[in-house]
Write a structure and sequence with these properties.
Number of domains of chain A: 2
Oligomer: heterodimer
Number of strands of chain B: 2
CATH topology of the largest domain in chain B: Arc Repressor Mutant, subunit A
Shape of chain A: elongated
Radius of gyration of chain A: 25 Å
Largest sheet of chain A: 5 strands, antiparallel
Order of helices and strands of chain A: HHHHHEHEEHEE
CATH class of the largest domain in chain B: Mainly Alpha
Helix content of chain B: 55-70%
Strand content of chain A: 5-15%
Number of helices of chain A: 7
Largest sheet of chain B: 2 strands, antiparallel
Radius of gyration of chain B: 19 Å
Distance between the termini of chain A: 57 Å
Shape of chain B: elongated
Number of helices of chain B: 8
Strand order of the largest sheet of chain B: 1-2
Strand order of the largest sheet of chain A: 1-3-4-5-2
Order of helices and strands of chain B: HHHHEHHHHE
Distance between the termini of chain B: 60 Å
């Protein structure tokens, strides 16, 4: 086997189960492979560092709008008015906390807006979509939005007229809210 | 006790989204956008470009313009392929992709210095040095490093995305690592990030 055949056909990031015939027989390729190993390890570090990076939440909102324009609102998107009503109630709470205008007691809602939470949102969450709020239509095209995660007691969600779900063990419901630079909510997504 | 359903394949989600099921589109977007966005970000160095490219990839999917054929490759490979084409258009427009591809593709090269170029650096310094080095790679090497090493796309899918044989993916990947090692050594020495290479061949 030539070295070129080896590098073109067989070489991987790691030798197969610690042994590779060509590497064992060719000191030149073995040295070359060994020289690349620190870089490969460094690249794994870089990959891990980048794992939390993802597209900004506004892109999902924009694409959903495009999807709905092309396919129309699906049956899954039914009951929108009820969701908007619930979302508006959630946003009042989330918006107030976001802007620091309301004291935290009583602890009705927990908010998380850490960079990791924001950047990672959308990567591993459920299938629910952001529902743009009526007064936010068109405002997400170009602006930067932040994502705020809120947690509501399940009883509060029921009181808002939303289905409480069938997981009766959970005491709270999570939602994500897109907040514009003016502190006003743009869209909401309920996670469970 | 509920039974856990296996996750839907990309192809299943694609079929459902084309049938107008919004949740399938959302699920596919959420599954695939992070790696597509990072690919575009690492290739372009621009968050703005990365966002535009990611958007255009999914719009192409919505419009049925991705040319996806499950017989010829996975959906994710096609999505990366679209992202790459969009990036190439950007590069052509900006003429920002400095050509460094003077090395003979058919020949093997080995670094003049086999020491660990990342030795004595902290983890943070390693990451930053590598990030700079990856960004400065010629495009054909950068794309294969980003796809295979950073996004862990397998060689077969990378070959579909790049439109080249799998052997080319492998050889470019190894050459790219050598280039990176050279760049890092140069940077460590405080010189210009231009690797010193000598061609070498051996036959067994």
């Amino acid at each position: 086997m030539s070295c070129e055949e080896y590098w073109n056909d067989l070489a991987g990031a790691e030798p197969a189960e610690g042994f590779d015939g060509h590497l064992a027989a060719c000191p030149g390729c073995a040295a070359r492979w060994e020289a690349g190993r620190p870089v490969a390890q460094g690249l794994r570090l870089l990959a891990a560092e980048m794992k939390h990076v993802s597209a900004p939440p506004r892109l999902e909102v924009r694409l959903l709008r495009a999807y709905r324009e092309r396919y129309g609102r699906s049956a899954e998107g039914g009951g929108v008015h009820r969701w908007w009503a619930a979302a508006a109630a959630v946003l009042l709470v989330a918006g107030a906390l976001w802007m620091g205008m309301r004291p935290p007691a009583p602890p009705l809602v927990a908010v998380s807006s850490s960079p990791a939470a924001v950047a990672g949102a959308g990567a591993e969450e459920d299938d629910a979509a952001f529902v743009p709020l009526p007064n936010a239509a068109g405002s997400l095209q170009d602006e930067d939005v932040d994502l705020v995660r809120v947690e509501l007691p399940r009883s509060a969600v029921t009181a808002l007229g939303m289905p409480a779900g069938d997981d009766s063990d959970a005491e709270s419901v999570e939602a994500e809210v897109l907040v514009g630079p003016d502190g006003m909510a743009r869209a909401v997504r309920f996670l469970n | 006790m509920r039974e856990m359903k296996p996750p839907e394949t990309d192809h299943d989600l694609f079929e459902r989204l084309r049938a107008g099921q919004e949740q399938a589109f959302v699920a596919l977007y959420q599954r695939r956008q992070p790696s597509l966005y990072r690919f575009a970000l690492q290739m372009s160095g621009s968050a703005h470009v990365a966002e535009d490219v990611t958007q255009e990839v999914f719009l192409a999917l919505l419009r049925g313009e991705c040319g996806y054929d499950p017989e010829r490759g996975s959906l994710v490979a096609y999505l990366f392929g679209i992202a790459r084409k969009l990036l190439l258009r950007q590069f052509e427009r900006r003429r920002a992709d400095a050509p460094m591809e003077t090395a003979d593709e058919g020949r093997l090269a080995e670094p003049a210095d086999a020491s660990d170029p990342l030795q004595e650096l902290t983890a943070r310094e390693r990451i930053e040095a590598l990030r700079r080095a990856v960004t400065s790679l010629p495009r054909r090497y950068r794309e294969v490093v980003v796809l295979c090493d950073l996004e862990e796309v397998d060689y077969a899918e990378a070959a579909v995305a790049l439109g080249c044989p799998i052997g080319t993916v492998r050889s470019r990947l190894h050459r790219a690592r050598m280039l990176l090692a050279g760049k890092l050594r140069e940077e460590r020495r405080g010189g210009a990030a231009i690797p010193a290479w000598k061609a070498a061949r051996c036959e067994i």
